[in-house]
Amino acid sequence: MTDPPKPRAPRRSPGDRYKWTALTNTTAAVFMSALDGSIVLIALPAVFRGVHLDPLAPGNIAYLLWMIMGYRLVQAVLVVTVGRLGDMYGRVRIYNSGFAVFTFASILLSFDPFDGGHGAMWLIGWRVVQAVGGSMLTANSAAILTDAFPEEQRGFALGINQVAGLAGMFIGLVAGGLLSAWDWRAVFWVNVPVGMFFTLWAYRTLRETGKRGGGRIDWWGNITFAMGLSAVLIAVTFGLQPYAGHTMGWTNPLVDGLITGGLILLAAFVAIENRVSAPMIQLGLFRLRAFTFGNLAGLAISIGRGGMQFVLIIWLQGIWLPLHGYDYGDTPLWAGIFMLPLTAGFLAAGPVSGYLSDRLGSRGLATGGAVLFGASFLGLMLLPIDFSYWIFAVLIALNGIASGMFASPNSSSIMGSVPARLRGVASGMRATFQNSGTAVSIGVFFSLMIAGLAGSLRTTLTAGLRQQGVPAHVATQVAGLPPVSSLFAAQLGVNPIQHLLQPSGTLAHLTAAQQQVLTGGEFFPTLIAGPFHSGLVIVFAFGATLAFLAAIASLLRGTSPAAKAPGPQEAVSGGPLARPDRYTSG
Fold first, then answer.
1. Which alpha helices (H) appear in 90-218, and where do they start and end?
2. Rounded Cα gap, residues 61 and 68, in angstroms
3. How far is Cα 48 from Cα 54, in angstroms, rounded to an integer?
4. Is 527 within 8 Å of 464 (Cβ atoms)?
5. Which of 547, 543, 579, 586 is nearest to 563 (CA)?
6. For the chain, which has fewer Cβ within 10 Å, the N-terminal or C-terminal residue?
7. Residue 506 and residue 472: Cα distance in Å, rounded?
8. Phi, psi (deg, nearest 5) at residue 240
9. Residue 278: DSSP 8-state
């Protein structure tokens, strides 16, 4: 008697293989794009030394701000446009071109031929081009994944993609410290081999699996949106710089004019989008409750996360590490290392929350993540300025877990709520909210921090300098350093006291003991610790408020089954956007 034939194992379909290829490639892309947004932040001391730029010269603050914010500004402005181009001409085509642009700009960034201000402008300019390529990658990666994965696995795939981006932000801090210790140009070299490999692999393996929408470019919509959002974000940059005796530039007529003009252009953009036949964005998407409240929650969390990153770096580099005996030149690297619990929290929670969101739904996980995010801010607010590290590590790990809990389900909810034909533009809109939040967070948190510092910084510095024998007129002059300069000095690992006393020759007239105190690693951190803590309380309270507002928005999203592609009749009658109740319930 013969045994019955054994059933064959089901063969893996080409679609199964393709979805993992798409996940691997797009994950590498968003990781690389996010990495480059933060790697320069930690490497700025080496970059400034490399191009021979004095970081504390008044005019050079603008270079520093644009190196940080220019990349995010361009990504915030362009992602909707390139997402729309992906819908029209093919998401994979735009995505592949983005990889090539990003890699080419990375090569030119590493060959800066100039010094001083010209060298800084070369870097800023090519980082703008690099951000164009990064926008093409991030705007279309989520749409490519949403097309490639079935609904029951979409949350997991988008979660992996989101965690890669968030992890890239914080791994960039450690990578920037390591690479800049070798050569400042290495922070750009690292993108070149990775970019070349994945560019070739993307061209060979990725294919169009979604429908192209065709249509025309909405030129007036693109122009008004780009100019309006750029004007607002540029105003934020100028608002951080001192103006006419004020600690910040929010009273500068240029800043007021840019904000007013930007808001007028954005209002014109909304009016245009309501009238054109082929709009740049689909305002009707905001009728979908999951889409609207998911993006609002994501914006609030993005502002809080981006601002916290800068504040923690300054806290570690400028105060805590010097007070614990670390040399100023080593603080960027160690600041990145001591923030590793934050990255570990992202990596642990992101994929798990994406997996669970496919089975349990997005609303509960995202809302719980936002609440935990706010609670971690309250914990950080209660820490003393010279904290015990293990408590700090636990709090930032909880913050990372909270961000991972929130990001994957929130992204899955947003992308699953829109029709298939609009996933490219929806992905771009989601990325715009996230990138705008990160860019605005710098201005918001720095403004709050400067406001907290301004109240007592000058008095504290003057008194401390005079105690060490510095003449009253010199102490008053040095203490007049704008608070934003003190913050950037801390971030860049520069001792501004030694830097500012040398030109006057004051140090030569002091005793050896006084010189040692003033030029040592603890004098400046000790002086600014009190004023800095006042600023910390303000910014962390604001971050907690944002997180709890995000939790409320997340609750209001309802439950949203994945949107279905519209049928012919729906397209004629206005499609699913004319009947948003189909995608929002609960």
1. 91-109, 116-148, 151-182, 186-189, 191-205
2. 11
3. 7
4. yes
5. 579
6. N
7. 11
8. -80, -15
9. S
Of 422, 369, 314, 417, the residue nearest 42 (C-alpha) = 314
- Tokens linked to 407: 């990001």
Along the 586 residues of the chain, how does pLDDT read in single tens digits?
A: 444 554 444 444 555 788 889 899 998 888 888 888 778 877 777 788 788 887 677 677 778 778 877 888 888 788 777 877 887 788 888 999 998 999 999 899 888 888 888 888 999 999 999 999 988 888 788 778 878 888 777 767 776 777 787 778 767 877 877 787 788 888 888 888 888 888 888 888 888 776 665 557 788 888 898 899 889 888 887 887 777 777 778 888 999 999 999 999 999 999 998 888 777 778 888 889 889 999 999 999 999 988 888 788 888 877 898 888 888 777 777 877 888 898 888 778 877 887 787 777 788 889 999 999 999 999 999 999 999 999 999 999 999 899 888 988 888 888 788 887 777 677 767 877 887 887 788 778 878 888 777 767 788 888 888 888 888 888 887 777 777 777 777 666 667 777 777 777 788 788 888 888 887 778 888 888 888 888 888 889 999 999 999 999 999 887 644 444 343 333 333 444 444 333 333 3
Nearest-angstrom CA–CA distance, 304 and 543: 5
Burial class (CB in 10 A: 0-12, 13-18, 19+), 15: exposed
Q: H or E element: which one contains 535? A: helix 523-555
User: Which two structure tokens, joined as six digits, stand for 157?
Assistant: 């795939």
544 token code pair? 């907690």
